[in-house]
């Protein structure tokens, strides 16, 4: 509960009026900066107590006696605390110089605790749904716009982490981002595992031989076994190539069990997408550079993602001799390319712009998202039922981020919609 009080203090949600336990009036001028490390909870706060302005740090506890229990009375880093905010004032705090620390007791209404418990309880639905319609449309739009940027920053942070692990190799970060995106959610994790298992330097040596490229990818995916598909000549050739290359580069495949095949429509099986990834790394090993050179032009970006799989896959969705009566398109659908623009092009552009302080590139990444059609999935449909219409991919990304990073985590205190609901419980009589 102490963390709740910290967040309420940071967001000025503890209600009014304030006064010390000794009766002096208190006005919060600046709540300060939340400290997530050792030391007082808030730095550089400013409050007016009985007409006199004080600047310093704030400490928050559920019980005033926690000051002693946590050892703050012997820690010099707490000497500059100007106000002790507590839920229960069970003792006075005497400083080393024998002065009394200003202490303020805050009591929240019982309905706040009931609402907070309801919103953050174990549930899968959006608990504040019935109250969202009461939030001002401008405030809703502002939060959605913020979430769009936050989603991009979230993806950019993941790319920066891959850069750190690869010692700044943008091609590795691009490869991993593309692989994860080609999993289209369902197989995103095994695609990422597959990419991590392959050395780009090895791929570059064989980029002019698509059979060897596919052998590396399907072999590392754990999908090659020479005792099966005996009549499939291409498959058997890949098995032999992989056996040689695996020994040469000391490669070890990921578990076949990592892939999801159950309850998956044939066209969503991972085989053709792995073949597309092999083709992509064969034809565009410099994909990141090409993405940057488009400067966000959607048509040029779409052209980059129109890789075509080999004739072998024209009537196959998996290995073996089972052919389809109708040919498959050799390239990704426009809807699938939209997903790659959303999850590969825009995040890479944004991450690149952040690390190179390129404001124009950053704006181009945002413009790309807001110019694409919205995604169609269960999360977006759920929000639409609650009155949130996704007019573009920027909005749908915001709604997905809101659900995954706030609603599913029950993080209502950091959500502006949660703020609205909980503030109403505190401030309304």
How large is the count of helical segments?
Answer: 17
Overall geometry comes to elongated
Percent helix, as a range, is 40-55%
Beta-strand segment tally: 7
Q: What profile does the largest beta sheet have?
A: 7 strands, mixed
Q: Which structural category fits the helices and strands?
A: alpha/beta
What is the averaged pLDDT score? Answer: 91
Multimeric organization: single chain
Query: What is the N-to-C order of secondary-structure elements (H for helix, E for strand)?
Result: HEEEEEHEEHHHHHHHHHHHHHHH
Instruction: Identify low-pLDDT runs.
Output: none
Radius of gyration: 28 Å
Note the beta-strand portion.
5-15%
> What is the CA-CA span between the terminal residues?
23 Å
In words, what does this structure look like?
The chain is α/β, with parallel strands linked by helices and 429 residues long. 48% of the residues lie in helices and 10% in strands. It is built from 17 helices and seven strands. Strands 1, 2, 3, 4, 5, 6 and 7 form a seven-stranded mixed β-sheet that branches. Helix 8 packs across helix 10. It is elongated. 35% of the residues are buried. The model has no long low-confidence stretch (mean pLDDT 91).
Offer a few descriptive terms.
single chain; 429 residues; alpha/beta; 7-stranded mixed β-sheet; 48% helix
How are the SSEs ordered, and which strands pair?
Elements: H1 2-10, E1 18-19, E2 25-30, E3 33-34, E4 42-49, E5 52-63, H2 66-69, E6 81-88, E7 103-105, H3 110-119, H4 137-165, H5 170-182, H6 188-196, H7 200-205, H8 210-220, H9 233-249, H10 270-283, H11 287-293, H12 298-304, H13 334-355, H14 359-371, H15 378-385, H16 393-407, H17 416-427
Parallel strand pairs: 5-6, 6-7
Antiparallel strand pairs: 1-2, 2-4, 3-4, 4-5
Helix pairs in contact: 3-17, 4-5, 4-13, 4-16, 5-6, 5-10, 5-13, 8-9, 8-10, 13-14
């Amino acid at each position: 509960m102490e963390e709740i009080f910290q967040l309420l203090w940071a967001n000025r949600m503890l209600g009014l009026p304030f006064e010390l336990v000794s009766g002096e009036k208190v006005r919060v001028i600046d709540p300060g900066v939340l400290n997530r490390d050792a030391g007082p909870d808030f730095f550089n706060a400013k409050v007016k107590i009985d007409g006199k302005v004080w600047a310093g740090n704030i400490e928050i506890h559920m019980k005033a006696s926690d000051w002693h229990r946590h050892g703050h009375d012997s820690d010099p880093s707490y000497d500059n605390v100007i106000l002790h905010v507590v839920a229960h004032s069970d003792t006075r705090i005497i400083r080393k110089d024998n002065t009394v620390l200003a202490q303020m007791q805050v009591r929240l209404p019982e309905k706040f605790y009931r609402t907070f418990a309801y919103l953050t309880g174990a549930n899968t639905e959006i608990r504040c749904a019935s109250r969202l319609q009461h939030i001002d449309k401008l405030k809703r739009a502002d939060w959605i716009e913020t979430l769009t940027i936050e989603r991009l920053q979230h993806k950019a942070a993941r790319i920066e982490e891959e850069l750190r692990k690869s010692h700044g190799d943008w091609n590795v970060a691009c490869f991993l981002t593309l692989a994860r995106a080609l999993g289209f959610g369902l197989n995103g994790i095994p695609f990422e595992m597959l990419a991590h298992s392959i050395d780009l330097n090895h791929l570059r040596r064989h980029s002019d031989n698509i059979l060897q490229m596919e052998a590396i990818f399907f072999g590392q995916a754990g999908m090659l076994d020479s005792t099966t598909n005996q009549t499939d000549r291409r498959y058997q050739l890949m098995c032999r190539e992989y056996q040689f290359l695996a020994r040469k580069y000391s490669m070890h495949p990921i578990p076949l069990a990592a892939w999801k095949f159950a309850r998956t429509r044939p066209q969503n099986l991972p085989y053709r997408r792995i073949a597309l990834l092999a083709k992509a790394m064969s034809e565009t090993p410099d994909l990141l550079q090409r993405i940057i050179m488009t400067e966000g032009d959607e048509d040029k970006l779409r052209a980059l993602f129109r890789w075509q799989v080999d004739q072998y896959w024209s009537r196959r969705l998996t290995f073996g001799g089972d052919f389809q009566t109708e040919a498959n398109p050799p390239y990704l659908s426009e809807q699938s390319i939209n997903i790659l623009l959303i999850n590969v092009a825009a995040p890479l552009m944004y991450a690149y712009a952040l690390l190179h302080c390129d404001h124009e590139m950053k704006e181009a990444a945002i413009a790309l998202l807001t110019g694409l059609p919205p995604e169609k999935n269960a999360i977006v449909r759920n929000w639409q039922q609650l009155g949130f219409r996704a007019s573009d991919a920027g909005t749908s990304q915001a709604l997905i981020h809101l659900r995954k990073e706030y609603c599913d985590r029950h993080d209502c205190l950091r959500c502006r919609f949660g703020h609205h609901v909980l503030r109403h419980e505190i401030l309304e009589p």
